[in-house]
Design goal:
Radius of gyration: 39 Å
Shape: elongated
Strand content: 5-15%
Number of helices: 23
Oligomer: single chain
Number of strands: 5
Length: about 525
């Protein structure tokens, strides 16, 4: 999609400058003249279908989504395919094509499990449960929603998790399981703090009012409904507005204010015929019938009840409830086990990654603890551990002490920054020269360095010392020190096999080194500066 947007920008076009019918024409132009791949053309169809949905052009929107699916291919476009199928199934439900919607839910759930998309799987199951609710079989709907309970923790989208819980609440209210609904609503309220979604917050208030009404706390329910703020420019805002009006009418009717209830329902009547889904229309006519009964208008109540019954009969004919029976639930049970296995593998993989990260962090920490930050050589902490290990294991070694000559004058005359550069270059040459097995380079402090040569005799150590001293003398110091050169002095002492400290674990290493250096066997003096 980013590539397509770059192409649009390069063509001097601005997608944000169009809306409505103009946006549909704009994206049709992009698809025909600017997009160069099938995936890009599919994205154009998808965006155009969204604009058509906002304009209530549902059938055209469905056709464009189907065109998009024809252009997308598995497995490379799996995420786009599942997203399109989710939108497509919602539009099919909206126009009453429940068989086609169920087919999309079924294929989406299978694909989501195969490719491990938990959120898309949850959306498909919610769709199936909604069809059961629309049919009026709320117990069966609850069985579908319960299929999500075991993977609830794996839903990555907080909005989707909240949406799932609100579907559960609505279902429990339909089954008159008020206590369970109220407990779940408390979870929803806590989760809504993390989800900035006005529509879902409004649903929480609506269901809280329903719970209060069921407890005959009508004034509290009305106060709860008074807090409702409808989302703007949202296709579901009309649904929320009408559901809130229905609930308000119920509460007003219950406290004896039938006239107000009738006024609210009458003002909602036009909206129902214009915007409402069959399910909402049925609920509206049932509510209107109930208010008329309480006002003694039995003839009108009967007519509204008949309207609701006709809608319910049509829904029962159109919704393929038989295909949402035991076989479908068994299929989802198999998926449930498969998803648990997938989640277990993901958790194991994440645990391994976390463990590896911890190992790397520990390794890095050890590296930092035992490394001199300026030169990257080992430091005195590392030397302490290394020397004790060699002494305890009676490893013969030669110790070389390298000291930069007249280093203080470099700092004083040329600055500490130049001095640091000199130290870094000396240490780099040290590491480069003593890179063979058994050699360890340590920055002992300031301009002093140590080299440990394991299993090395005195003659070999003298040769290495002289070669390194000459290497430093011949190094190109002009770029760093100008006309001034740089030399080093090197002292060597040999630790013979069989010699150990009486208490190596307690004797300070520096004291041991100083004692060894008092018996320097050979000192290679540097040339005069």
């Amino acid at each position: 999609m980013e590539t397509l947007l770059c192409k649009i920008t390069d063509a001097g076009l601005d997608p944000s400058s169009v809306s409505g019918e103009e946006a549909i024409i704009f994206w049709n132009h992009i698809r025909q003249h600017i997009s160069t791949t099938k995936t890009e053309q599919a994205h154009c169809y998808i965006i155009s279908s969204e604009y058509r949905a906002k304009l209530q052009q549902n059938q055209a929107s469905i056709e464009e989504l189907r065109h998009a699916l024809d252009l997308l291919h598995l497995p490379s476009d799996i995420e786009d395919i599942l997203t399109v199928k989710t939108s497509l199934s919602d539009r099919l439900v909206k126009i009453g094509d429940y068989n086609a919607a169920l087919n999309e839910f079924v294929t989406s759930s299978s694909m989501a499990v195969e490719y491990g998309y938990i959120d898309k799987y949850v959306a498909a199951i919610l769709g199936m449960g909604n069809l059961c609710d629309a049919y009026g079989d709320h117990n069966r709907a609850l069985r579908y929603y319960q299929k999500i309970n075991s993977i609830d923790h794996a839903i990555s989208s907080r909005s989707l998790r909240l949406k799932f819980k609100l579907h559960m609440v609505a279902n429990l209210l339909m089954l008159n399981r008020i206590t369970a609904a109220n407990d779940l609503l408390n979870e929803c309220e806590e989760l809504s703090i993390l989800v900035s979604n006005k529509r879902l917050t409004t649903q929480i208030l609506l269901y809280q009012a329903k719970v209060l009404r069921s407890k005959k706390k009508y004034n509290d329910a009305l106060n709860c409904l008074a807090k409702v703020q409808y989302p703007v420019n949202n296709t579901r805002a009309n649904w929320l507005a009408m559901m809130t009006r229905l609930e308000m009418a119920h509460c007003l009717s219950a406290i004896g204010k039938q006239e107000y209830a009738s006024m609210i329902l009458s003002s909602t009547d036009k909206r129902v015929s214009e915007y409402a889904s069959p399910v909402l229309a049925k609920r509206f006519y049932d509510s209107l019938s109930e208010v008329c009964v309480k006002q003694g208008r039995f003839q009108e109540a009967l007519s509204y009840e008949k309207k609701g019954y006709r809608i319910e009969t049509d829904l029962m004919k159109q919704i393929p409830i038989s295909e949402l029976g035991a076989s479908q639930l068994r299929r989802l049970s198999r998926f449930e086990l498969q998803l648990k296995l997938i989640l277990s593998e993901q958790e194991n993989r994440e645990l391994k990654e976390t463990t590896e990260q911890h190992k790397n962090a520990v390794a890095q920490l050890q590296q930092d603890v035992f490394t001199d930050p300026l030169t990257g050589l080992r430091n005195r902490r590392w030397l302490d551990v290394k020397l004790k290990d060699m002494l305890l294991n009676e490893t013969p070694f030669t110790l070389m002490v390298v000291d930069i000559d007249h280093f203080k004058s470099i700092n004083d005359e040329l600055s500490h920054l130049v001095g640091d550069k000199a130290i870094v270059n000396v240490s780099q040459e040290l590491r480069s020269h003593f890179k063979f097995k058994g050699a360890s380079c340590i920055r002992f402090g300031g301009e002093e360095f140590l080299v440990i040569l394991e299993n090395t005799d005195l003659a070999q150590a003298e040769m290495h010392a002289e070669n390194y001293r000459e290497r430093i003398f011949q190094f190109g110091w002009h770029d760093i020190l100008g006309e001034r050169g740089l030399t080093v002095s090197i002292g060597i002492t040999l630790h013979r096999e069989g010699k150990t400290l009486n208490a190596p674990s307690t004797a300070p290493i520096k004291r041991y080194i100083e004692r060894k250096l008092t018996v320097v066997i050979k000192c290679v003096q540097s040339s005069d500066m």
